[in-house]
């Protein structure tokens, strides 16, 4: 308790964001006590803008008054500040691979999702983005050789990948897609079950029904646009 | 010499790439001996594709047969593998800031350049991308409080920023733009001189005339397209 009296950890976030939830999960894994400061999506507070003037985005972690932005930068900061239950491996080569695959998820998976949203908005074929998603899932399927990407314990790729494991099935349900399933990607599908049922992760996931309602509203506004 | 007999370090790259040059600079800073394997831009070798099947891009660093891709992942790998002359600070908060600004350059500066290229191709106004570039330079101008972003010694932000310091002036010269100069961004401009004249950097920069010729050809093909 002594250390908690000296430390003040705040996480500025919004509930439906997979980028915020990965920080929640990392702090939970480390056993760090923190205060979640809920921001209003689309109308961020002056405090948030002050802490992240460059991107004006959540999540922002504020540790003893000092802000850190960008979810993967925050994950590394957490791992270097609180050493217990490492998020990254200790071997430099394994660390490089973990960073590579974690970046891959944000780059290629998020990229394909953006393309999917834009094809819905433009009422164009979503074939290209679906193929991109399949390529992403196939690379990850091939890469997964243990229970988690981190081995027997969860690591940065697993935490980043919760976006795929928990958010994407909700998006699929809303949009009627069937890209990610047990038949096509059996290892990745099993992993998605294991990671979302992992105690440290489960405790920090948003309510599925709330997320469904959120994405239903977004989906309807996307297909109704123009 | 004993360690060099055990170690084999190869860098797969192309000469005009700022992403490849940052790896050259980092290896030079560390005093690591390596072999530069020149790839053919637009027609990468099977070896390169085998080493980087995900992105099919240079740079790829191959250390004792094990490939690492993506320039910023490679820089961190180099820093963790060869400890002398650190590229990242040791304090976790300063490390987070260094990662943040290094990502910022690749995200916002590269993003604005892509937009600039696409407006040239479409023969549309480049006003928006120029404003984005100015915002990028202003943030960096405000952030620069010592000789280098890394302090008195160069660090990851400086190495990443060579893209701005050396490549952008060449691009400006080719396209007739005047966005980055001593009047508007005096600290950043001085930094651009200091970093390109730093011995470790200077030794690894491509020939300016070659780069000019390369970008002149690219510029002409962009404005001639359609």
List the helices and strands and how they pair.
The structure is a homodimer of 226-residue chains.
Chain A lengths: L1 H5 L2 E5 L4 H13 L4 E4 L7 H6 L8 E4 L2 E4 L1 H11 L10 H30 L5 H17 L12 H20 L10 H12 L1 H4 L5 H17 L2
Parallel strand pairs in A: 1-2
Antiparallel strand pairs in A: 1-3, 3-4
Summary, kept brief:
2 copies of one chain form a homodimer. Chain A has 226 residues and is of the alpha+beta class.
What's the multimeric state? homodimer
Q: What's the number of helices of chain A? A: 10
Are there runs of chain A of 5+ residues with pLDDT below 50, and where?
A: none
Query: Can you tell me the CATH architecture of the largest domain in chain A?
Result: Up-down Bundle
Mean residue pLDDT of chain A: 95
Number of strands of chain A: 4
Question: Termini separation of chain A (Å)?
Answer: 55 Å
* CATH topology-level fold name of the largest domain in chain A: Glutathione S-transferase Yfyf (Class Pi), Chain A, domain 2
- Helical content band of chain A: 55-70%
Could you explain how this protein is built, in words?
The structure is a homodimer of 226-residue chains. Chain A has 226 residues and is an alpha+beta fold. The first copy, chain A, has 2 domains: 2-81, Glutaredoxin, CATH 3.40.30.10; 92-224, Glutathione S-transferase Yfyf (Class Pi), Chain A, domain 2, CATH 1.20.1050.10. Chain A is 60% helix and 8% strand. Chain A contains 10 helices and 4 strands; from the N terminus they run H-E-H-E-H-E-E-H-H-H-H-H-H-H. Chain A has helices at 2-6, 18-30, 46-51, 71-81, 92-121, 127-143, 156-175, 186-197, 199-202, 208-224, and strands at residues 9-13, 35-38, 60-63, 66-69. A 4-stranded mixed sheet of chain A has the order 2-1-3-4, with helices on one face. In chain A, strand 3 (60-63) and strand 4 (66-69) form a beta hairpin. In chain A, helix 2 (18-30) runs antiparallel to helix 7 (156-175) and helix 7 (156-175) packs across helix 10. The A-B interface holds A 54, 63, 66, 68-70, 73-74, 76-77, 80-81, 92-93, 95-97, 99-100, 103-104, 108, 139 and B 54, 63, 66, 68-70, 73-74, 76-77, 80-81, 92-93, 95-96, 99-100, 103-104, 108, 139.
């Amino acid at each position: 308790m002594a250390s908690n009296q000296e430390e003040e950890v705040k996480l500025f976030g919004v509930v439906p964001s997979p980028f915020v939830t990965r920080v929640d999960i990392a702090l939970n894994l480390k056993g760090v006590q923190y205060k979640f400061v809920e921001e209003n999506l689309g109308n961020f507070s002056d405090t948030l803008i002050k802490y992240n003037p460059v991107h004006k985005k959540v999540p922002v972690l504020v540790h003893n008054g000092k802000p850190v932005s960008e979810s993967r930068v925050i994950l590394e900061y957490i791992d270097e500040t609180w050493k217990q239950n490492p998020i990254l491996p200790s071997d430099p080569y394994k660390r490089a691979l973990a960073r590579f695959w974690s970046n891959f998820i944000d780059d290629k998976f998020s990229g394909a999702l953006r393309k999917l949203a834009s094809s819905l908005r433009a009422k164009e074929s979503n074939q290209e983005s679906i193929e991109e998603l399949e390529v992403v899932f196939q690379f990850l399927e091939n890469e997964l050789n243990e229970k988690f990407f981190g081995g027997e314990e969860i690591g940065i790729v697993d935490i980043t990948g919760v976006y795929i494991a928990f958010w994407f099935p909700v998006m699929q349900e809303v949009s009627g897609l069937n890209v990610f399933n047990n038949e096509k990607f059996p290892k990745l599908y099993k992993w998605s079950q294991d990671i979302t049922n992992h105690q440290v992760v489960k405790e920090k996931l948003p309510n599925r029904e709330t997320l469904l309602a959120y994405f239903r509203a977004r989906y309807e506004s996307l297909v109704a646009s123009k």
